[in-house]
Amino acid sequence: MPNIDGVVITLVNFKKELEKRGHELFIFTAGDKKAKEQNKDKKVFYYTSIPFAPYPDYKLAIMPYISEREIRKNNMDIIHSFGMGTIGMAAVTCSKLTGLPLIGTMPTNIQEATHYISKNKRIQNLAKSIAWKYMKLYYNQCDKTLVLSEAVAKLCRENGIKNVEVTPWGVDLKRFRPGPERRRKNKNERINVLYLGRIVKEKNLDVVIKSSLMVAEKIKNVHFTIVGGGPAEDYYKKMVKEGGVEHLFTLVGRVKPEKTVDYYHDADIFVFPSIFETQGLAGLEAMACGLPVAGADYLAIPEFVKDGYNGYLFDPFDADDCANKIVDTIEERKKLRSGAIATARKYSVEKCTDIMLDAYYRVLEERKGKKGVREKIRSGLKEARQKILSVLNKIYIKRIQILKNFKKEI
Q1: pLDDT band at 385, cuts 50/70/90?
Q2: Closest residue by Cα to residue 58 from 94, 131, 112, 110
Q3: CA 120, CA 276: separation in Å to the nearest integer?
Q4: Residue 318 CB: number of other CB atoms within 10 A?
Q5: If DSSP states are collapsed to H, E and C, what string results for the chain?
Q6: Dist. CA 164–CA 147, nearest whole Å
Q7: Cα 224 versus chain centre, distance
Q8: Same CATH topology for 6-170+351-366 and 191-347?
Q9: In angstroms, rounded to a whole number, what is the distance separating the alpha carbons of residues 405 and 333?
Q10: Which of 142, 135, 141 is nearest to 159 (CA)?
Q11: Which residues of 141-175 are buried (b: 16+ CB within 10 A; e: fewer)?
Q12: Which CATH architecture is the domain 6-170+351-366 placed in?
């Protein structure tokens, strides 16, 4: 917080569920002066940070390594890292120093976000290779690496990351639940196609914008609503304008988290063109609200979008295919609604917390009795001291014996 994205939403959901079950969760995160001043939660620690220039919403914490002190003071049992930046490296360091088990979650495909570094394709490919090497180095220091889908697990194993397990993130089904089916007063009332999420190039909204005129030819009263903010907002506004489809689009911008449900309930279907998803939380939220999904046949999305059951999949680089599948999803939306709701129920926060806790308990059992670096040093010093004292004691006893023998001889 105050950022709103899949990681933040998931952490908030898990925190509530874990605390409801009697567990304690402490959060160490990057934040600015305002976030630190406004924080009232004694179990949340904000560290001074600097913004990541290409994406200012993301911040890099400066010197978060003092978190070891809080870990020891609060008698924590396990460390769970959701990032690979400075906070993530602090998690590795604290695990080594304290001996606590470390779990790492891979929440995003950073290797596919190299366009933030450079527009040059060669540099992007080099950066992608370096990213995988870094992730291998980072996650192989964890006791277990949790990923959100089988697609990402396969990628990780292919790139040398060990101890990988699939642990999906959950949807708050009390909040995201089906609204009333939209009933139209007349045939000309518009059909609303919704996208809700970060506005970034890796979400691949280009294909939806390019397909919109083809969709409008078949569905005369169609309209596209794009909700969210991010560094590509101006890029997509310009693309909509230059493509001559302004009449088909409403770009809402950022909205408060509590308002997102209203947008889901006001839509007929959800379009999910992303080529970046490790799971696709927004798509599952949409399904929980009763929306079928027209989604990209890419990475994790095919794991929950099933043709003819809860939506349709399309080639994310083919505007014609995208248009056809959006049309199919619109025309079959009533039939697909029940499948969408049933799919979302498999991903409840409660079920996903059970899966994550099981991973925690297994790691704790495997690491039982292992010591941290500081404990090893203390233990080593204690052993060395005892050995020295034992040697000195033997020398002392030997000298006493020599003195006794000398006295007898006298």
Answers
A1: low
A2: 110
A3: 19
A4: 15
A5: CCCCCHHHHHHHHHHHHHHHCCCCCCEEEEECHHHHHHCCCCCEEEEEEEEECCEEEEEEECCHHHHHHHHHHCCCCCEEECCCCHHHHHHHHHHHHHCCCEEEECCCCHHHCHHHCCCCHHHHHHHHHHHHHHHHHHHCCCCEEEECCHHHHHHHHHCCCCCEEECCCCECCCCCCCCCCCCCCCCCCCEEEEEECCCCHHHCCHHHHHHHHHHHHHCCCEEEEEECCCCCHHHHHHHHHHCCCHHHEEEEECCCHHHHHHHHHCCCEEEECCCCCCCCHHHHHHHHCCCCEEEECCCCHHHCCCECCCEEEECCCCHHHHHHHHHHHHHCHHHHHHHHHHHHHCCEHHHHHHHHHHHHHHHHHHCCCCCCHHHHHHHHHHHHHHHHHHHHHHHHHHHHHHHHHHHHHC
A6: 7
A7: 27
A8: yes
A9: 103
A10: 135
A11: bbbbbbbbbebbbebbeeeebeebbebbbbbbbee
A12: 3-Layer(aba) Sandwich (3.40)
Residue with tokens 């569905």: 219
Q: Are 169 and 6 in contact (CB under 8 A)?
A: yes
Pairwise CA distance, residues 135 & 133, whole Å: 5
User: What is the CB neighbour count within 10 angstroms for residue 69?
Assistant: 10
pLDDT digits (tens, 9 = 90+) for 39-55: 888 898 888 887 776 66
Residue 222 has a pLDDT of 97
Tokens of 400: 């006493």
CA-derived radius of gyration, the chain: 28
pLDDT digits (tens, 9 = 90+) for 200-235: 999 999 999 999 999 999 999 999 999 999 999 999
Tokens of 117: 């570094």
| Cα distance between residue 101 and residue 369, in whole Å | 11
**How high is the pLDDT of residue 114?**
64
CA distance 345 to 172: 10
The residues near 343 (Cβ < 8 Å, ≥ 6 apart) are 284, 287, 304, 306, 309, 310
Prior bond to 107 cis, omega within 30? no
- Between 251 and 409, residue with greater pLDDT: 251
pLDDT given at position 40: 85
Provide the 10 A C-beta neighbour count for residue 25. Answer: 15
Domain 191-347: which CATH class? alpha beta
Domain residue ranges of the chain, discontinuous segments joined by +: 6-170+351-366, 191-347
d(CA 240, CA 230): 16
CA dist., res. 65 & res. 340, Å (int): 44
